[in-house]
Design goal:
The protein is α/β, with parallel strands linked by helices. The model has no long low-confidence stretch (mean pLDDT 95). The chain is built from twelve helices and 14 strands. Helices cover 39% and strands 22% of the residues. Helix 8 packs across helix 9 and helix 10 packs antiparallel against helix 11. It is globular and about 50 Å long. The strands form two sheets. The protein has a nine-stranded mixed beta sheet with strand order 6-5-1-9-10-11-12-13-14, with helices on both faces.
């Protein structure tokens, strides 16, 4: 029996978002536009250097689950927090979005993960993440009945960093496929791809993963090439279905010999790119699990991403379902 459209699995993180200039990034040795993994000491130091900040529950897959629920879909989420104040914030926020979330918190040491996100004037975000309690996520946190009753289970490539999470993901894939469901992943970050290229390719080529999400930089990194068309050709050969975002150029859906191009949504102002890829995946998977055409799935993805980049923070402040209906997308 289908209970959920999409189950997402990821690092449960509270985002702490602040604006800065490029000089700040250089002075503090922050790689612009990347997700930088940091230890507790550096997390404290960067937090002390931050200007006025906004706290918001985030984490890539958590954002995707929230986006699917916001669109009117049925979403579930697996991810580990600690029994501390930030953990309580995360739990409240994701449940308030209408997402099924029952992963048990674990003590208060290590603490709930947090990501210091510095947004520059061009809207680019540079993330500095202390994984904290995320590393405690493991096979015991897999709710088999939730996986079995979800049309698609989606996980973030970032989750490949905590070692025990890998087995949990493989367990999810086994349960999903045993129940005729599909498995999906996002490559997450070109630096993440560099760390796990061989493993990500094996997940795709072995059929462990059915649907892949990527952006231009990530797919080029995956195949170690500067030739975008060549990368798409190899991607089509390695997985059943893929969606590649191209910033202001929109997205391309890849399935076998098909290349379905989708235009980006027109926006009034680029404010913050945090969550753009997460919300693209939300829109696409919402459409996919509702039986929409691949072109329509791409349009829904570009729409959701277009909404979130016009605000601060990774979770839409408006009803995507209502806005989508007004535009004739839902």
């Amino acid at each position: 029996m289908v209970k959920f459209d999409v189950l997402t699995v990821g690092n449960a993180i509270v985002d702490i978002i602040s604006r800065c200039d490029d000089r700040f990034l250089t002075e503090n040795e922050i790689t612009k536009g990347a997700m930088n993994l940091i230890d507790a000491e550096r997390a404290e130091r960067l937090y002390a250097l931050m200007g006025p900040a906004v706290e918001a529950s985030g984490g890539s897959a958590g954002n995707t689950a929230a986006g699917i629920a916001n669109l009117g879909g049925k979403a579930a989420y697996f991810g580990k927090v600690a029994d501390d104040q930030l953990g309580k914030i995360f739990i409240h926020d994701i449940r308030a979005q209408g997402v099924h979330y029952e992963t048990r918190p674990k003590g208060n040491n290590p603490p709930t993960a947090r990501s210091m996100i510095f947004v520059t004037s061009d809207g680019e975000r540079s993330m500095n993440t202390h994984l904290g309690a995320c590393v405690e996520f493991g096979p015991e946190d897999v709710e088999a009945e939730v996986v079995a009753s979800s049309k698609v289970t989606y996980f973030e490539g970032y989750l490949w960093d905590p070692p025990r999470a890998k087995q949990a993901i493989l367990d999810c894939a086994r349960i999903a496929h045993e129940n005729g469901r599909e498995m999906s992943m996002t490559l997450s970050d070109s630096f993440c791809v560099d760390r796990y290229r061989a493993e990500f390719l094996d997940l795709m080529r072995s059929g462990t993963v059915d649907i892949v999400f990527s952006n231009t930089q990530e797919v080029l990194a995956l195949y170690e090439t500067d030739d975008f068309d060549l990368a798409l050709e190899r991607l089509a050969r390695d997985c059943k279905l893929a969606a590649v975002t191209m910033s202001e150029k929109g997205a391309v859906i890849v399935k076998g010999a098909e290349r379905i191009r989708v235009d980006a949504m027109h926006i009034d102002e680029l404010v913050d790119t945090t969550g753009a890829g997460d919300l693209f995946a939300a829109g696409f998977l919402y459409g996919y699990t509702q039986g929409r055409s691949l072109y329509d799935c791409g349009r829904l993805g570009c729409f959701a991403a277009g909404v979130v980049i016009q605000q601060i923070g990774p979770r839409p402040l408006i009803s995507l379902e209502q806005a989508g209906r007004e535009l004739g997308l839902i």
